[in-house]
Design a protein that fits this description.
- The chain is of the alpha+beta class and 160 residues long.
- The protein contains four helices and five strands; from the N terminus they run E-H-H-E-E-H-E-E-H.
- The protein has helices at residues 28-40, 46-66, 112-119, 146-159; strands at 17-21, 75-82, 85-92, 122-127, 134-140.
- Strands 1-2-3-5-4 form a five-stranded antiparallel β-sheet, covered by helices on one side.
Length: 160
């Protein structure tokens, strides 16, 4: 099958990215930094950034806090652009599966998966290949360009 060569002035698009990080809260900022670097190589990567960083932080924190895996096990993060959606995955060696619940006003914790469910196009949890652990994934749509959002807001304000 013939292959096409990219335009000489085009930036190479990143493929899937994966990294393994220590299972500790201090690794979450590193995961977000890796995500920012990945998104910076995408033509419209900034349109995913805000929601993606928030959700990656929540999924990573859940893997650290709720995994029953031994402390020396690493957490793997993966990023890929799939059909215009950003796919985030957080893998851990724990046996439990996340469960979504609706937090009440007085709850100080427990809103992470609620945020994921509200902001992701879709999300889920799957067993890892080999049967050890799981991965939680989320698909994130790009945000509308700011100019479009501002114009829509102005038109809506004028119509009222």
């Amino acid at each position: 099958m013939p292959t096409t060569c990219p335009h000489p002035n085009s930036r190479p698009r990143p493929r899937a990215f994966a990294a393994r990080l220590d299972s500790r809260a201090g690794s979450a900022p590193v995961a977000r930094q890796l995500l920012r670097a990945y998104l910076s190589a995408l033509p419209a990567g900034d349109r995913y950034a805000d929601v993606a960083e928030l959700l990656l932080g929540e999924l990573f924190a859940n893997a650290v806090q709720h995994s029953d895996a031994p402390a020396d096990r690493l957490i793997e993060v993966r990023f890929a652009l799939v059909n215009g959606l950003l796919r985030l995955e957080v893998h851990d060696a724990g046996g439990g599966r996340p469960s979504l619940h609706s937090p009440v006003l007085e709850d100080e914790r427990g809103r992470g998966l609620f945020l994921v469910a509200q902001l992701a196009e879709r999300w889920g949890c799957c067993p890892r290949a080999g049967g050890v652990g799981k991965f939680v994934w989320a698909l994130i749509a790009p945000a509308l360009p700011l100019a479009v959002t501002a114009a829509d807001t102005t038109l809506t304000a004028l119509a009222v």
